[in-house]
Amino acid sequence: MTAPLLQAEIDIDAPVSRVWSLIADLGNMPRWSPQCRLMKALGEVRPGTRTINLNRRNRLFWPTTSTITEFIPERKLAFRVNANNTVWSYELEPTATGTRVVETRHAENGVKAVSNMTVNAVMGGVQSFERELVAGMNMSLARIKAAAEG
Fewest Cβ atoms closer than 10 Å to its Cβ: which of 7, 8, 58, 75? Predict the structure, then answer.
């Protein structure tokens, strides 16, 4: 059974504008995510823009496409992965010392059955894969923090 919500957050000692510039540049996604190897926008990044993505887990590579669902400068970037209907988002909030970033994977309407079957067959099952996704979110946020503060 797919969890409806996976989430991680981090506080970064850098202004929202600096953090946003790192997150909003989709070409940076492979720098942050341990699974993403490519995220390329097909046009200007705004709601409705499609992206081509390449993911990797160990020796397994798989392409996906996604659609930007929200792009609110210095506040929120969200995209829907078309293969499984999950929505990934980065929300930024100013804090007294910088920026809080919350990364979320939303699957409130579940994940497409074919996606769950693939995860169960090839990736060790949905629960272990989702634990891996949360670990990856924490790693991504730590890498964004290091870049923003460095």
Answer: 58
Whole-angstrom Cα distance, residue 28 to residue 144?
10
Sign of CA dihedral 83, 112, 49, 17: negative
Q: 146 burial class (0-12, 13-18, 19+ CB within 10 angstroms)?
A: exposed
Amino acid at 111: V
Residue 113: is it exposed, middle or buried by C-beta count within 10 angstroms (0-12/13-18/19+)? exposed
Q: Give Cβ neighbours of residue 42 (< 8 Å, ≥ 6 apart).
A: 49, 50, 51, 52
Ranges of each domain in the chain: 5-149
Q: Compute mean pLDDT per 10 residues along the chain, 150 residues long, and list them.
A: 90 98 98 97 98 94 97 98 95 98 90 82 86 96 98
Q: State how far the Cα of 105 lies from the Cα of 96, in Å rounded to an integer.
A: 26
